[in-house]
């Protein structure tokens, strides 16, 4: 399973071979190799710390704006700080028209950081469109390989376009610019090596979703991909309750009953949960038991199927949540 974690290596084996051919002899070779390594080191530091970049339109009023885009049954969350534009997941491949329109409406042309939580089609499906029509400066994912064609094409595009790439691990911190950071809480290396195996030996890629806590002064939001109960338990075991406490929760796995476990909600203590799900979706997301848990814990919730695109804005202290339509806590069945 580690095989593909290193496939999109932008200093890949071909590049190394080429460097070896050019610099194989003499003092000049040693000096060039030194500078080559220095450039590589500086670039890696920039990638992890997230410095540099922009090019995309930041919110005019400053602060931080987070939009859970209405892209049907899938995830696409646009984050704009004073310095960077970040996208977490890319919607489903069936929803590219909606996805493109949503990004165009926001005036996005450049994505400084693209984070793919896990390689399922409803999260990765729009990546091909992004690579084709937008400028993507850096890609982060969980390094979990699959044999799906759309996944292999995604890796090929990263390599062909020489886009900076990194597999995120528990403990990594990304700098989103403008005083906003993203603390990665899952997966661990061992989880990815295990490939998302469940107790009964099946593979569930959701379990290795990238989970991260965004922090901007007093504001915090927990991003969860499609993480489920074992992931939630693992995070609490490794990090404790304080590490997940957040004002806003991106409802894990489209509001499924397999996530948002009571112990997790108790630890996160969100005021608001944002659910990304499609109208009339076949999974009946968000599940009634999840909505009930939110209601019992006095967590306001918004859902893209009823509320359209949901916009969170914060100056790092207070925050507002603005639905495109409808009202909060819409408890109607899907
Ligand atoms: Zn999903």
CATH topology: Metallo-beta-lactamase, Chain A
Task: Give Rg in angstroms.
Answer: 20 Å
| Main sheet overview | 8 strands, mixed
Question: End-to-end distance, in Å?
Answer: 37 Å
**Which structural class is indicated by helix and strand composition?**
alpha/beta
Treating each run of at least 4 consecutive H or I residues as one helix, how many helices? 11
| Strand/helix succession | HHEEEHEEHHEEHEEEHEEHEHEHEHEE
Sequence-ordered SSE layout with sheet pairings:
Elements: H1 13-22, H2 26-49, E1 64-68, E2 77-80, E3 85-88, H3 96-105, E4 110-111, E5 113-115, H4 121-124, H5 127-133, E6 135-136, E7 138-141, H6 149-160, E8 164-167, E9 173-177, E10 180-186, H7 189-194, E11 211-216, E12 219-223, H8 229-239, E13 248-250, H9 262-268, E14 272-275, H10 288-296, E15 300-303, H11 304-307, E16 310-314, E17 319-323
Parallel strand pairs: 3-5, 4-6, 5-7, 7-8, 12-13, 13-14, 14-15
Antiparallel strand pairs: 1-2, 1-16, 2-3, 9-10, 10-11, 11-12, 16-17
This protein binds zinc ion.
Structural description of this entry:
- The protein contains 11 helices and 17 strands.
- It is of the alpha/beta class and 334 residues long.
- It is 31% helix and 22% strand.
- It has an 8-stranded mixed β-sheet with strand order 8-7-5-3-2-1-16-17, with no helix packed on it.
- The longest helix has 24 residues, at 26-49.
- It has a single domain (3-323), classed as Metallo-beta-lactamase, Chain A.
- Bound molecules: zinc ion.
- Zinc ion binds at residues 75, 120, 122-123, 226, 254.
- Zinc ion is lined by residues 75, 120, 122-123, 226, 254.
């Amino acid at each position: 399973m580690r095989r593909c974690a290193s496939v999109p290596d932008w200093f890949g084996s071909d590049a190394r071979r080429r460097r070896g051919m050019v610099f194989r002899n003499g003092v000049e070779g040693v000096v060039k190799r030194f500078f080559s390594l220095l450039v590589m080191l500086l670039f890696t530091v920039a990638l992890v710390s997230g410095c540099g970049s922009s090019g995309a339109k930041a919110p005019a009023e400053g602060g931080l704006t987070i939009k859970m885009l209405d892209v049907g049954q899938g995830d696409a969350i646009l984050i704009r700080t004073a310095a960077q534009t970040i996208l977490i997941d890319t919607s489903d491949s069936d929803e590219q028209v909606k996805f493109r329109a949503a990004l165009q409406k926001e005036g996005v042309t450049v994505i400084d950081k693209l984070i793919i939580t896990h390689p399922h089609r409803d999260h990765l499906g729009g990546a091909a469109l992004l690579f084709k029509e937008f400028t993507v400066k850096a890609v982060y994912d969980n390094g979990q390989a699959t044999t799906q064609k759309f996944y292999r094409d995604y890796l090929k595009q990263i390599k062909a376009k020489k886009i900076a790439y990194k597999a995120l691990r528990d403990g990594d911190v990304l700098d989103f610019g403008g005083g906003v950071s993203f603390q990665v809480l899952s997966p661990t290396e061992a989880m990815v090596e295990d490939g998302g195996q469940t107790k009964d030996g099946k593979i569930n890629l959701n379990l290795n979703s990238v989970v991260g806590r965004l922090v901007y002064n007093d504001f915090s939001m927990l991003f969860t991909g499609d993480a489920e109960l074992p992931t939630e338990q693992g995070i609490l075991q490794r990090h404790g309750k304080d590490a997940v406490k957040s004002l806003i929760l991106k409802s894990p796995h489209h509001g499924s009953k397999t996530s948002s476990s009571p112990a997790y909600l108790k630890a996160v203590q969100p005021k608001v949960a944002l659910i990304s799900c499609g109208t009339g979706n076949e999974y009946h997301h968000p599940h009634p038991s999840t909505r009930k848990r939110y209601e019992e814990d006095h967590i306001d919730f918004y859902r893209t199927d009823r509320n359209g695109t949901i916009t969170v804005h914060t100056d790092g202290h207070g925050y507002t949540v603005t639905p495109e339509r409808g009202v909060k806590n819409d408890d109607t069945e899907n």
